[in-house]
Q: What sequence folds into this?
């Protein structure tokens, strides 16, 4: 039995050629299956009647977030969509209760200060004390922000609450 090193130069070249060809084919197969553009299209063309569409099963569509589009009439100063609410998890309390940070921002493009910001908040409660001048539940599904006072344009308020689950918060009304 002979080894490749002890074989003739032509046998070594043939072995190198097959190894290189196999490597290139393997890389092309991997690129094809992962959707990389290497000149070979992984898209499938479907024809439904006269309608032609392309499908790429490896692509993911981003879902549109629940952002309310402003429906302004020329001259309207502000709307509910000018208040943006972000919230996310933070480090839990020492007792293990999860905590969440909420940020409420005024992003009015007309430079307006917005007051009377009310949120839908269910039976909002927190194991961590929240300054009632920043955020307070008035009744079921009605919480007021900044004690009803104006939130200046470009400004944000934030607070943390602790509960076993995240409360869905959304703007229910504003005063312009």
A:
């Amino acid at each position: 039995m002979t080894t490749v090193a002890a074989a003739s130069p032509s046998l070594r070249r043939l072995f190198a050629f097959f190894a290189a060809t196999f490597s290139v084919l393997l890389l092309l197969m991997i690129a094809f299956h992962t959707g990389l553009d290497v000149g070979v299209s992984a898209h499938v063309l479907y024809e439904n009647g006269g309608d032609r569409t392309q499908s790429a099963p490896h692509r993911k569509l981003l879902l549109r977030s629940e952002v309310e589009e402003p429906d302004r009439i020329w001259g309207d100063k502000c709307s509910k969509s000018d208040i943006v609410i972000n919230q996310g998890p933070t480090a839990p309390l020492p007792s293990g209760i999860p905590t969440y940070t909420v940020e409420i921002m005024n992003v009015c493009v007309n430079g307006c200060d917005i007051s009377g910001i009310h949120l839908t908040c269910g039976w909002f409660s927190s194991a961590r004390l929240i300054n009632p001048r920043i955020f307070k539940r008035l009744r079921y599904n009605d919480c007021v922000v900044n004690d009803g006072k104006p939130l200046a344009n470009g400004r944000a308020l934030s607070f943390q609450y602790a509960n076993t689950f995240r409360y869905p918060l959304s703007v229910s009304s504003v005063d312009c």
